[in-house]
């Protein structure tokens, strides 16, 4: 048997798991005596002006034949994908879409294949985003046909196609052929003129086409009257005409047959099938019925199913006689039956008794297993209710399928097996448990773990002895890892870490390298989250680093990106800025080396890198990484909030406070409905900080109060951000005693748990509070300790973002011969010039109103006066009856014209210039 060649990014050794079948990527070859249909071809050509061409009609209307003939007459740039039920796995579906597109553009999607075939494939929308960006750069038009789309029932796949249609590049035309309209936004596309529709009435044969088909293609030689009578009864239904033509071959009473040809489509086809089969030799009838269960047919496969020889010659003969056989490749090695014909044959086969069909399914499964076509073998075994064979195949190969990203395929197999079959098998119970974990259903795992442990105890297999095959050797380690996950879910961190540590000791050396690496990756991830939950942050960081190492060894690029983001966040908490920088750079370099730099998941790495560089005050580099992050994907939900926080801090560092507030507003809009309370609390906490710097303490207080309401009870990073915002507001409201009292226990907790990054910011704030209280010695002590933490790691913005009060404190400390004098000089140089204390800068001239680069407008002067009265932005908007955004724009312009860095500075400069 000739297997389909793997596409780019695959190895032939992966064929058994999820290798791409080349026969799915070929449009059926056109017949030499086919009926030309220029009328319908013009509909398709005209439809290219829309993004989507929907060809929707019941079975038997010639959809596939029409599209195959149309593509054959088109220039290069046409791609084909025949869909089936197995394509409901999003990773598999997208892999095939990329493979189809690569037949026209070989380089497209190359960076996306490996992530899709990893244990943690990226979200479908992220892959589509990257693919759309690549396709937009392709020269010339592309046409992608998705045939038999009615086979798709997965909401995730429908969602991916809908997302593609919403972001379709101008050079890509999507053609969907289906028996029924799919659940994609057809009505919306129709209202925008973005869909062309070809329906059953368009596909029916005209009288001339019917005559050409019956007489030239089928070779009947009917009169014009007979053609007309038959076509009127069939109503242009192509499959009905073909079955009628097959039934009429060699008949004497053609007119009588035509008069009897009436009724519903199903009645007609049942009747005609009887007629067609009755006119075939018994061996042909037997062949058609026995092989009707096959999704695709080859000579050797049909030999195995029928128990006879000569199947290749039989298939070629059926094709020559137009007996509903469709070739799938130019070599005529693979065929399929017309779907409607296969349905009719299967119904007839089951009339012989279900055991007959079951035996044929079992033979097909056995042949596919021998040939390494495991996915098809499982499908045939399940269809024939051969659960023993199916369970054995799933137990042996589910890990390989999961490694190749086909998680939904594994999940569908496990759900298709009876529950008692799954729960009586240790490997299947473990597989089911992993699937539940991946789906966020940790609370449902326990019964399956108990079943797996019971079944394992009955087996004479152990990890220590290495007995048994790979499906069983790693089970003790996997069970311990899953126990760790359940412990973490129950907040029993001690049990979680104990189970994870035990799991590591149980990983057998006999596992294949990739399987062993994948298992260790999941175990270290369980260990890291257990340590993290217990507050053992240093050990958690080490376990996350190991998770990344094993993710690389298991070729899990998505895992590398995701876990690196977790690690970087943890390192920031620990105050290890240099290690965070190094982790980001290593991960980005790895993704680049693997050809995955355009993967949307890498956007979070660029965002983390931007945040680290921002803290070091490398603003240009930080902005470059932020821009790269924004290019790589859609930033919505919590990811959108995270992006907005970095963007706002960057704009604030550039002295663009209004731009920073606008970025936060974008982040809040990206949260959607209902917004995540914790994400919104983080946005509000930063907004309060910016408003404090702008000299708007009352507005800042309102933001801080709302942030406390939403996130004040959180015991993690969000809770700390909210508490820090509240402390800053207290300082701005001249309540340093209350601020210091709130900061002291937070600082003690942070230092006790090793969260030195948090402790650094807390010490800086407490130094400001103590300075405001007049406790100079205490302020200097806190600041010296903060400098000792910050200098080795290269922190800058954590000081500079506190503004002029911090600049003044640093200058005082420098004057006392502090040990970090060079570092203090570096920090002072990073402050905007107007905020450096007078002792540290040369005096500048006072500018008169006439020296302004551009005078203030009347409206700007009006806004300025209201600012000086202490009105908030909202109050100014209400007073002047203008939009809040307009007020912010006026304040932005006022600050620019006055050369001011914030609201308070603008008022002071206006007074200097005599404007107030």
Short description:
By secondary structure, the protein is mainly α.
Could you characterize the architecture of this molecule?
Strands 2-3-4-1-5 form a 5-stranded parallel β-sheet, with helices on both faces. It has a two-stranded antiparallel sheet with strand order 6-7. Strand 6 and strand 7 (335-337) form a beta hairpin. The chain contains 49 helices and 7 strands. The longest helix has 22 residues, at 513-534. The chain is mostly helical. Among the domains are: 12-203, P-loop containing nucleotide triphosphate hydrolases (Rossmann fold), CATH 3.40.50; 207-278, no CATH class; 354-417, no CATH class; 418-555, Serine Threonine Protein Phosphatase 5, Tetratricopeptide repeat (Alpha Horseshoe); 735-844; 849-912, Winged helix-like DNA-binding domain superfamily/Winged helix DNA-binding domain (Arc Repressor Mutant, subunit A), CATH 1.10.10.
- Report the oligomer: single chain
Question: Sheet with the most strands?
Answer: 5 strands, parallel
Share of helix among residues?
Answer: 55-70%
**CATH fold call of the domain at 12-203:** Rossmann fold
Number of helices: 49
Radius of gyration: 35 Å
Summing up helix and strand content along with how strands pair, one would put the structural category as mainly alpha
CATH architecture verdict of the domain at 12-203: 3-Layer(aba) Sandwich
């Amino acid at each position: 048997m000739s297997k389909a060649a793997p596409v780019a990014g695959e190895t032939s050794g992966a064929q058994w798991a999820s290798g791409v079948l080349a026969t799915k990527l070929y449009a059926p070859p056109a017949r030499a005596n086919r009926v030309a249909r220029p009328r319908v071809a013009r509909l398709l050509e005209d439809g290219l002006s829309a993004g989507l061409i929907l060809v929707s009609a019941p079975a038997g209307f010639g959809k596939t034949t029409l599209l195959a003939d149309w593509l054959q007459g088109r220039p290069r740039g046409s791609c084909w994908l025949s869909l089936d039920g197995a394509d409901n796995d999003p990773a598999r579906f997208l892999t095939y879409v990329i493979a189809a597109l690569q037949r026209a553009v070989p380089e497209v999607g190359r960076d996306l294949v490996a992530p899709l075939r990893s244990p943690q494939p990226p979200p479908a929308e992220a892959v589509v985003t990257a693919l759309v960006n690549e396709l937009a750069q392709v020269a010339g038009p592309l046409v992608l046909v998705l045939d038999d789309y009615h086979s798709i029932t997965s909401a995730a796949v429908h969602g991916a196609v809908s997302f593609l249609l919403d972001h379709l590049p101008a050079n890509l035309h999507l053609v969907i052929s289906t028996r029924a309209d799919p659940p994609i936004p057809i009505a919306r596309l129709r209202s925008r003129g973005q869909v062309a529709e070809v329906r059953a009435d368009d596909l029916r044969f005209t009288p001339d086409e019917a005559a050409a088909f019956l007489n030239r293609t089928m070779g009947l030689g009917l009169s014009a009257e007979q053609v007309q009578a038959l076509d009127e009864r069939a109503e242009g239904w192509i499959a009905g005409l073909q079955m009628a033509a097959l039934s009429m071959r060699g008949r004497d009473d053609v007119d009588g047959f035509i008069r009897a040809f009436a009724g519903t489509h199903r009645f007609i086809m049942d009747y005609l099938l009887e007629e067609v089969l009755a006119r075939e030799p018994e061996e042909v009838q037997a062949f058609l019925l026995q092989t009707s269960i096959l999704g695709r047919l080859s000579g050797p496969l049909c030999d195995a199913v029928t128990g006879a020889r000569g199947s290749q010659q039989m298939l070629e003969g059926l094709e020559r006689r137009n007996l509903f056989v469709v070739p799938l490749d130019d070599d005529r090695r693979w065929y399929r039956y017309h779907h409607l014909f296969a349905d009719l044959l299967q119904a007839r086969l089951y009339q012989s008794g279900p055991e007959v069909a079951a035996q044929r399914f079992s033979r097909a499964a056995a042949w596919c297993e021998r040939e390494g076509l495991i996915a098809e073998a499982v499908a045939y075994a399940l269809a024939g209710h051969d659960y023993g064979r199916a369970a054995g195949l799933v137990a042996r190969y589910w890990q390989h399928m999961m490694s190749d990203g086909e998680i939904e395929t594994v999940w569908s197999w496990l759900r298709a097996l009876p529950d008692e079959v799954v729960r009586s098998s240790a490997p299947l119970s473990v597989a089911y448990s992993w699937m539940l974990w991946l789906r966020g259903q940790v609370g449902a795992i326990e019964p399956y773990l108990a079943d797996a442990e019971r079944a394992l105890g009955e087996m004479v297999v152990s990890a220590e002895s290495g007995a048994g095959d790979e499906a069983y050797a790693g089970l003790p380690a996997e069970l311990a890892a899953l126990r760790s996950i359940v412990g973490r879910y129950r907040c029993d961190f001690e049990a979680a870490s104990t189970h994870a540590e035990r799991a590591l000791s149980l990983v057998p050396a006999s596992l294949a390298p990739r399987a062993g690496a994948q298992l260790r990756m999941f175990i270290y991830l369980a260990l890291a989250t257990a340590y993290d939950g217990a507050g053992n942050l240093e050990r958690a960081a080490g376990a996350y680093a190991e998770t990344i190492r094993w993710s690389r060894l298991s070729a899990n690029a998505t895992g590398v990106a995701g876990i690196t983001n977790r690690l970087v966040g943890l390192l920031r908490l620990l105050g290890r800025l240099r290690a965070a920088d190094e982790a980001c750079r290593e991960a980005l370099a790895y993704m680049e080396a693997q050809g995955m730099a355009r993967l949307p998941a890498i956007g979070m790495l660029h965002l983390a890198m931007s945040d680290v560089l921002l803290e070091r005050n490398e603003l240009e580099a930080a902005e470059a990484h932020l821009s790269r992050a924004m290019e790589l994907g859609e930033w919505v939900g919590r990811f959108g909030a995270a992006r907005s926080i970095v963007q706002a801090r960057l704009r604030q560092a550039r002295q663009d406070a209004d731009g920073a507030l606008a970025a936060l507003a974008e982040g809040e809009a990206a949260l959607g409905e209902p917004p995540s309370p914790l994400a919104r609390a983080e946005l509000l906490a930063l907004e309060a900080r910016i408003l404090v710097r702008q000299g708007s303490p009352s507005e800042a207080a309102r933001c801080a109060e709302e942030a406390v309401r939403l996130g004040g009870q959180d015991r993690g990073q969000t809770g700390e951000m909210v508490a820090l915002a509240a402390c800053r507001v207290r300082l701005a409201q001249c309540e340093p005693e209350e601020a210091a009292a709130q900061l002291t226990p937070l600082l003690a907790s942070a230092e006790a748990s090793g969260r030195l990054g948090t402790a650094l910011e807390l010490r800086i704030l407490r130094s400001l509070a103590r300075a405001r209280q007049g406790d100079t010695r205490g302020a200097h002590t806190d600041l010296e300790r903060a400098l000792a933490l910050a200098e080795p790691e290269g922190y800058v913005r954590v000081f500079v973002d506190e503004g002029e009060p911090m600049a003044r404190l640093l200058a005082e400390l420098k004057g006392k011969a502090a040990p970090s004098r060079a570092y203090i000089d570096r920090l002072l140089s990073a402050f905007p010039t107007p905020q450096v204390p007078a002792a540290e800068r040369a005096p500048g001239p006072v500018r008169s109103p006439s020296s302004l680069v551009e005078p203030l407008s009347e409206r700007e002067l009006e806004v300025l006066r209201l600012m000086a009265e202490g009105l908030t932005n909202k109050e100014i908007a209400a007073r002047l009856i203008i939009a809040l955004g307009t007020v912010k724009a006026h304040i932005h312009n006022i600050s620019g014209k006055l050369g001011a860095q914030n609201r308070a500075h603008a008022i002071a400069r206006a007074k200097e210039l005599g404007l107030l």
